[in-house]
Amino acid sequence: MKVARVTLSDRAANGVYADESGPEIERLVAGHFDEPVEWVRVLLPDERSQIEATLIRLADVEQCALIVTTGGTGPAPRDVTPEATRAVLERELPGFGEIMRMQSYAKVRTAILSRATAGVRGRSLIINLPGRPRAIGECLPLLTPAIAECLDHIAGFRPKLRQPAS
User: Fold this and answer.
1) Model confidence over 131-160: pLDDT tens digits?
2) Distance of alpha carbon 91 from its chain centroid, rounded?
3) How high is the pLDDT of residue 39?
4) pLDDT in tens, 68-115
5) Are 80 and 128 spatial neighbours (Cβ–Cβ below 8 Å)?
6) pTM (2 decimals)?
7) Cβ atoms 64, 3 nearer than 8 A
8) Are strands 124-129 and 66-70 parallel, antiparallel or unpaired?
9) Which domains occur in the chain, in start order?
């Protein structure tokens, strides 16, 4: 399964701090899917045109079945990930963002400020995740059954979910 993880952060892209969110996505995907993963790793500043071009390349050229972004989903002026994502989607799947906000709101009341979304471009599923590793850990596991189902519909294969240890 070819998966891209795209970290969107001006400061991480400029070397102010290390990207911790991208590695957290890899750890969680490996822990929840029983499939070998070929990773494509991208780190970008919060620039809408770069994000759009990268998402198009990852879906259309690299043919990543799953593209997971992290960061840029809040209300700040530089948070443009949802706009860039919507610009390249063929079909939006708002339920992904809705369930993440619902789950996160139970723990952090400001989670309703998230504008994360998801959708389909060609045979790729694109999902916006929060920018903090802890929030990724709370949200991504909730999405794995829907990710597997969606990939079955759009890409023609269903990644196996790893069975929880008993």
Assistant:
1) 999 999 999 999 999 999 999 999 999 999
2) 16
3) 98
4) 999 999 999 999 999 999 999 999 999 999 999 999 999 999 999 999
5) no
6) 0.96
7) yes
8) parallel
9) 2-155 (3.40.980.10)
Query: DSSP readout, the chain?
Result: -EEEEEEE-HHHHTTSS---HHHHHHHHHHHHB-S--EEEEEEE-S-HHHHHHHHHIIIIIS--SEEEEES--SSSTT--HHHHHHHH-SEE-THHHHHHHHHHHTT-GGGGG----EEEETTEEEEEE-SSHHHHHHHHHHHHHHHHHHHHHHHS--PPBPPPP-
The encoded tokens of residue 7 equal 């970290």
Burial class (CB in 10 A: 0-12, 13-18, 19+), 56: middle
Sort strands 2-8 and 38-44 into parallel, antiparallel or unpaired.
Answer: parallel
Residue 68, token pair as written in the block: 């997971």
Q: Which of 65, 105, 68, 110 is nearest to 85 (CA)?
A: 68
